[in-house]
Amino acid sequence: MAEQRLGIKRKTHRREDARASLADAEFSAIRKSVLRSHGWRCAVCGWKSEGEDGPTHLQVHHIDDDHHNNQESNLEPLCPLDHAYHHLGCDAPSHGGHVGWASQMRVAYLPGLSPADLNLLHMALGAALADPSTAPVAQAIYRLLEVSTLVVKDGWGSHKAKDFAAAMERMTPEQYAHRKVDDLRVLYDWPIVQQMGEVWKKDYPMLSARSWAQHKR
Ligand SMILES: [Zn+2]
Asked: What distance in Å separates the CA atoms of residue 155 and residue 86, rounded to the nearest whole number?
């Protein structure tokens, strides 16, 4: 499993690579077998998104950051939330533009929650929004999580993921390898939680808060 720490893609980005289409062809040929061999589950949080006969919401990640290395051992499925940990840099100055969710991520100080647990919590909150009886609780929990981004803003001067990405881009390889980010997590902006809530509930029907109440009985 890839390390689950905040990071950026420091090797050749596919958008700056003349051989990208060759690597892409290789990748698309092997992509589905990687997903299938992992049982259509995120390698970090275990979220399942079956896509044998339709679209899956899983993405396939290059563990060593090199999109030319399309060996099966270098590839693993990740849910969009876990994948984004490795790509804070999509929005870094030298890459320009907005790709993915880079501008909708804040850094939070949450040592007590693993990245996988926090991401599953995002999914549960999104699913709970669909039900008027649980939506206010989901909003209240999210506001508590937001407090942990303010700690980062005070201590580091910013809680924006793109500022962290820019700082990591300026590091030497040695500094980057030893970056101290183990207690930091990504909090996704509320519109992402809302937008993905319906999707997550479809993949995992038991995420709906009503089904929790049923399980309790
Ligand atoms: Zn995941």
From this structure: 22
Task: List the domain range (segments joined by +) for residue 113.
Answer: 14-209
Q: How far is the CA of 18 from the centre of ligand 1 (A)?
A: 31
This prediction has a pTM of 0.83
Angle at 136 between CA 131 and CA 139, to 5 degrees: 110
State in Å, rounded, how far the first CA of the chain is from the last one: 37
| pLDDT string in tens for the chain (217-residue length) | 556 788 887 665 555 566 667 777 788 888 999 999 999 999 999 888 888 888 888 989 888 887 788 899 999 999 888 988 888 866 444 444 445 677 889 999 999 999 999 998 998 899 888 788 889 999 999 999 999 999 999 999 999 998 998 899 899 999 998 999 999 999 999 988 988 887 777 777 666 666 666 655 4
Please give the distance, rounded to the nearest whole angstrom, from the Cα atom of residue 166 to the centre of ligand 1: 25
Q: Does 48 fall in a domain?
A: yes
Compute, in angstroms, the gap from residue 90 CA to the centroid of ligand 1.
19
Domain presence at residue 7: no
